[in-house]
Write a structure and sequence with these properties.
Bound molecules: NADPH dihydro-nicotinamide-adenine-dinucleotide phosphate
Shape: globular
Number of helices: 15
Mean pLDDT: 98
Distance between the termini: 61 Å
Radius of gyration: 22 Å
Number of strands: 23
CATH superfamily of the largest domain: Aldehyde Dehydrogenase, Chain A, domain 1
CATH architecture of the largest domain: 3-Layer(aba) Sandwich
Largest sheet: 7 strands, mixed
Number of domains: 2
Low-confidence stretches: none
Structural class: alpha/beta
Strand content: 15-25%
CATH class of the largest domain: Alpha Beta
Length: 472
């Protein structure tokens, strides 16, 4: 049992002003594996004051020094890879071998990348008689979710610190233990007091206190569109800069000349990765009506390869979901799909055999899904694929764009140039062509209700900068 009874504020571990604690659960067993403080609005206030007081000095620390400190964070995280991966696999449910690469390797890489960015970046440029200088935004409030908990934290904290901002982090209550490990690493590395602060607690208490506070200059949020809208509303009161990474309902268009043997298994992985708890998951598979039966058969076979099991077991391909709420929510969507008349190809709302305990959901595939169905429109966040048939390419593009979201997408074709043309017509922040490889420094973010702003690489770094022009 991991008991963390203090918050990290102004360079020290301090008790919360409240008495509450929150429990953290093992998604495999439903057992309590940790306890954390249920922070208060007063705790958030203290952390914001500390971050505000630290900003002047931190923003003037040399780029070289900031770079060194960030590189040491990457080293500190790398040294704790096994502990972090196991913690996150228990919290979130991702299979352990994948957690090491995705849940720990990626965030470690973000700190290393930002350590380089801070010294390589062009901080100044000229436009006519003006000198353009980039300056840190100020105090950043970072509110993060549970699905890729440390990665989503790193995508905010690393560029913010690199830019010269100070940070107050509120991680998700569902997967917070990894954030405490990060705070330990940052403390050991020796960041000045107040530069990084960690306040755990409920979103509607600590999160809202951060989003509405006048001394927070920017709030960077990742999570549901519902909570993102609330954050944006609260931030509007003081006209803060707002960055939002929200939900998605991304379409994977399989064109009629696609190699189905490659496209279907890859598409299934892009939907089921992390048990479907991925904002950019390709949850709608759009297929030519003439090839529907063939696709259903291949999808069913591919789904059988995702046997659910304990996230710490070496053979597991599909771990549990992160919480009982999520499990029940996803099972509810499966029931709704059946009720609304979609064809259940495989899976279902019942617990997978032998896995009644734990937050497990069967790998599920629906076909003959129509765009008016709930499972074609709402983010499910579980291992549930909706196959939607189309008659023409124009119709496929229209279906892909028939969503309040605009986060991601895929196109498969044996004619890559043609696939690229189709990709340009999809109104989303990213599209993978023929399963194009993940690029950790390519900008990531959403159109429409999937968000505002971009994370990762140079674009993500620039989000934490203000631009000033000096006329000479
Ligand atoms: P939330 O959006 O509620 O959680 C994300 C973060 O926001 C958490 O830290 C949460 O705190 C915080 N939060 C919640 N309400 C507020 C608020 N009013 N003001 C400020 N911060 C707030 O996601 P859920 O856990 O409820 O998940 C529900 C659904 O959201 C999922 O099924 C999925 O569809 C979507 N989602 C999308 C994600 C993405 O990557 N885009 C990530 C996670 C969820 P707390 O600790 O209290 O939860």
């Amino acid at each position: 049992m991991e008991i963390r009874d203090k918050l990290y504020i102004d360079g020290a571990w301090v008790p919360s002003t409240g008495k509450g604690t929150l429990e953290v659960f093992d998604s495999n067993t439903e057992e309590v594996i940790g306890k954390i403080p249920e922070g208060t609005a007063e705790d958030a206030e203290k952390a914001i004051e500390a971050a505000s007081a630290a900003f002047g000095e931190w923003s003037s620390v040399s780029h070289e020094e900031r770079s060194k400190l960030l590189a040491r964070v990457a080293e500190g995280l790398a040294a704790r890879t096994d502990e972090l991966a196991e913690t996150i696999s228990r919290e979130v449910g991702m299979p352990l071998s994948l957690s090491k690469i995705v849940q720990v390797g990626l965030p470690t890489g973000v700190f290393a990348d930002m350590a380089k960015k801070v010294t390589e970046f062009s901080w100044e440029s000229e436009v006519g008689n003006s000198l353009i200088v980039r300056e840190p935004v100020g105090v950043v409030g970072a509110i993060t979710p549970w699905n890729y908990p440390l990665y989503q934290i790193a995508l905010k904290v690393a560029p913010a610190l690199a830019a010269g901002c100070t940070v107050v982090l509120k991680p998700s209550e569902i997967a917070p233990l990894n954030a405490f490990i990060l705070a330990d690493v940052l403390h050991d590395v020796g960041f000045p007091a107040g530069v990084f602060n960690l306040v755990t607690g409920l979103g509607n208490v600590v999160g809202e206190a951060i989003a509405g506070h006048p001394k927070v200059d920017m709030v960077s949020f990742t999570g549901s569109t519902r909570a993102g809208k609330r954050v944006m509303t609260l931030a509007a009161e003081t006209v803060k800069k707002v960055a939002l990474e929200l939900g998605g309902k991304s379409a994977n268009i399989i064109l009629d000349d696609a190699d189905l043997d490659a496209a279907i298994p890859a598409g299934m992985f892009a939907c089921y990765m992390n048990s479907g708890q991925t904002c950019s998951a390709l949850t709608r598979m759009l297929v030519p009506r003439a090839r529907l039966a063939e696709v259903e058969e291949k999808a069913k076979a591919a789904a059988a390869g995702f046997a659910p099991g304990d996230s710490l077991a070496a053979t597991t391909m599909l771990g549990p979901l992160a919480s009982a709420i999520q499990r029940d929510r996803v099972r509810g969507y499966i029931e709704k799909g059946i009720k609304e008349g979609a064809k259940l190809v495989t899976g279902g709302a019942e617990a997978p055999e032998g896995l009644e305990k734990g937050y497990f959901v069967q790998p599920t595939v629906f076909s003959d899904v129509t765009t008016d169905m709930t499972i074609a429109q709402e983010e499910i966040f579980g291992p549930v694929l909706s196959i939607i048939p189309y008659d023409t390419e124009e119709e496929a593009i229209a279906i892909a764009n028939d969503s309040i979201y605009g986060l991601s997408g895929g196109v498969w074709s044996s004619d890559k140039a043609h696939a690229e043309q189709v990709a340009r017509k999809i109104r989303t922040g990213q599209v993978d062509i023929n399963g194009g490889a993940f690029n950790p420094v390519a900008p990531f973010g959403g159109y429409k209700q999937s968000g505002v702003g971009r994370e990762r690489g140079e674009f993500g770094f620039e989000e934490f900068l203000e631009i000033k022009s000096l006329q000479r």
